[in-house]
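Lab channel / #folding
Pinned by the channel admin:
"Please post every new chain as: sequence first, then the structure tokens as a reply. Keep commentary short and put observations after the output so the thread stays searchable."

First post following the new format, from NK:
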Amino acid sequence: MTADTPREPGKLPPVFQPLLPDDPREVGGYRLFARLGAGGMGRVYLSYTPGGRPVALKVVRPEFAEDGEFRRRFAQEVSNAQRIHGLYTAQVIDSGGLDSDSPWLVTAYVPGPSLQQVVRENGALPVRTVLLLMGGIAEALQAIHSVEVVHRDLKPANVLVAGDGPRVIDFGIARAADATALTGTGYRIGSPAFMAPEQAQGRAITPATDVFALGALAAYVAGGTAPFGDGPDTAVLYRVVHEEPDLTA
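Reply from TO:
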């Protein structure tokens, strides 16, 4: 994403990805103008409300949508997420498509890069910046947990850095994906480098799981590298469960 908010449909900064032939042009009455990104759960597009407000619209992958339990949990998690109004979260505005092969949800558009992009381009950040970012993310988690939602996938790519502070995105949606058959066939929900040991072991998830991820995130931002290293997912997960984090960077 870019730090420049597009001001009107049809005039987008060149850094946005154009729509591809297989991308929809309209979803749930929202006209799509560009791709903002893609991930394991689906694709994210730039759209606008009728009043001209830019929004991010995520279309869920059909593999998830085919699962009835996913759709049920997706509806519940979106309903919970709409109750979250923290200053440092991207508000969930709308959703739909539960009876189709492409459920979707709309959140406030955040004009800024991901924390992952920031660290990749700049390396370790100054201590004051780290403290400000972590304070905002911690406040976001407090708002999320206050409505009994656990994020489950707090990672640098799920924190966007706007001019007035961080915004946590995709909160709670990973829980819906936990219900699908894909999670038992090699598709893992969550990011190994920022998982808590209980999540890596498939045990019960609690708000403390997010707090562990916050600590891993702080180490990543302060040191420029993930505290449990990189490499194959299995190797990282082993270190998460059996070894101490590397905080020497």
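NK: Residues 181-187 have pLDDT under 50 and may be disordered.
TO: also worth noting, DSSP finds eight helices and eight strands in the chain.
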